[in-house]
Design brief:
The protein is α/β, with parallel strands linked by helices. The chain is about 45% helix and about 15% strand.
Length: about 425
């Protein structure tokens, strides 16, 4: 794991090297995904069936065999037992309650000329949610994506989730039942994204696709963007822990491990203004790592992309944090407010030593679908606003038409657009008569 010093002359180069990550998907993946999209567009259901058999080892005669019924989702809910039901229900309620505060309403006002101007806010008609499957199952991701869509008022939520070799996870199915998925298909990869974007004989065409996936899913989302909306191109998970030495070093180390155990490409960084705290953290990492169940993954992540960074003071630490623009940012400090005031870029901010990022992953309330790769500089967490669209409303009064026709005429004429100018001019004349 790298040890960096923000006071060193070469720190800027070292930090750039630490954060470097090729966002472009391998050209071979791009080409393969482009061909998959072409095939699905041309052949629809038949190609989805063929690719599902090829990549997931699931053979089906028709698409009805790849759709999970509402009864099957309800049965999975019963199978998981009371304790699991209670955990999912508590998480769902907290997520729903948080996102209800994000709902916006339409608005309008009347200006001094009598024009009615406003904005009409409406939910999307149909959304596609990609739920990862395979080696890991994420019922939490089901709740974190579907519930904001439902709170926004989306009419229909279509879920696709791969089931390699036909293996279905009851916790995922139970979460889909609880969150109110309208239709669920055991489809994955670029082919599922293509099917959602263009529609097939059975799979409905959607307006937007959200949810994380592998490199093929990410490439497919990029290629279909414009045909449909997408939430973001999600990358490996990231955490930045800022500690001032006032909290338990074990807590900070376990929070680093929590992100590193996702996969070898995940990034875990600890910043501190206390050099001794960093030394303690390094020692504890060495002590605890061999005992972790996913020690090989954690070790690979920390060696490839992890770092312990010393900063001289709070201002320097905040400067480094804002340059990193982490997906998850923990403030394990005694007095968080001055730090919060100085933070400009982070997907989610976890305030105080007790606020471990793990609570955000499962039950705190805000969606855990967050911007990665430093995109928190301009992007936001998944929320209700991702499932709404806005239309401007404009009503020009007769008096306003007279007042606005002349400047409109002038501007249109300056752009060489005669019909625009005339359309304004005739309305201005009518208003004068």
């Amino acid at each position: 794991m790298r040890h960096l010093d923000a006071t060193a002359a070469d720190f800027a180069d070292e930090l750039e090297h630490l954060l470097a990550w090729d966002l472009s998907v391998d050209s071979k993946i791009d080409l393969a995904v482009s061909e998959i999209i072409r095939q699905v567009r041309a052949e629809g259901d038949g190609q989805l069936l063929a690719l599902t058999q090829r990549f997931d080892g699931v053979s089906a005669k028709d698409m009805t065999e790849l759709e999970i019924t509402q009864e099957e989702l309800a049965d999975a809910w019963l199978r998981i037992g009371v304790e699991a039901q209670q955990a999912l229900s508590e998480a769902a309620e907290r997520i729903r309650r948080f996102h209800e505060h994000q709902r916006e309403g339409s608005w309008s006002f009347t200006d001094e000329l009598g024009c009615q101007l406003g904005q009409k806010i409406q939910p999307l008609d149909r959304v596609g949610v990609y739920v990862p499957g395979g080696q890991a199952a994420y019922p939490s991701s089901v709740l974190m994506t579907l519930i904001p869509a439902k709170v926004a008022g989306v009419q229909e939520v279509i879920v696709v989730s791969p089931t390699p070799n036909g293996l279905r996870n009851d916790m995922v199915l139970a979460a889909l039942h609880l969150a109110g998925a309208d239709r669920v298909f055991t489809l994955g990869g670029a082919q599922a994204v293509a099917g959602l974007a263009y529609g097939t004989q059975t799979l409905p065409r959607v307006d937007k696709i959200v949810g994380p996936g592998n490199a093929y899913v990410a490439a497919a989302k990029k290629q279909v963007f414009g045909q449909v909306g997408i939430d973001m191109i999600a990358g490996p998970s990231e955490v930045l822990v800022i500690a001032d030495g006032s909290t338990d070093v074990e807590w900070a180390v376990l929070d680093l491990f929590s992100q590193a155990e996702h996969d070898a490409s995940a990034q875990a960084i600890l910043i501190s203004t206390d050099a001794d705290f960093l030394r303690q953290a390094a020692a504890m990492i060495q002590e605890r790592l061999p005992k972790m169940q996913r020690s090989d993954i954690i070790r690979a992540s920390l060696e490839q992309r992890g770092a312990l960074i010393y900063c001289a003071d709070r201002d320097q630490a905040l400067d480094v944090a804002n340059r990193i623009a982490a997906e998850h940012l923990e403030l394990a400090v005694a007095d968080p407010q001055p730090w919060i005031d100085g933070l400009r870029h982070a997907g989610a901010i976890f305030v105080g030593a007790y606020t471990g990022e793990t609570f955000g992953d499962y039950i705190a309330g805000p969606s855990h679908v967050l911007p990665t790769f430093g995109t928190a500089r301009f992007a936001s967490p998944l929320g209700v606003y991702d499932f709404q669209k806005r239309s401007s409303t404009i009503e020009i009064s007769r008096t306003a038409a007279q007042a606005l026709s002349k400047p409109t005429d002038l501007l249109a004429t300056s752009e060489g657009l005669e019909a625009h100018a005339l359309a304004a001019r005739v309305r201005g004349r009518d208003a004068q008569e």
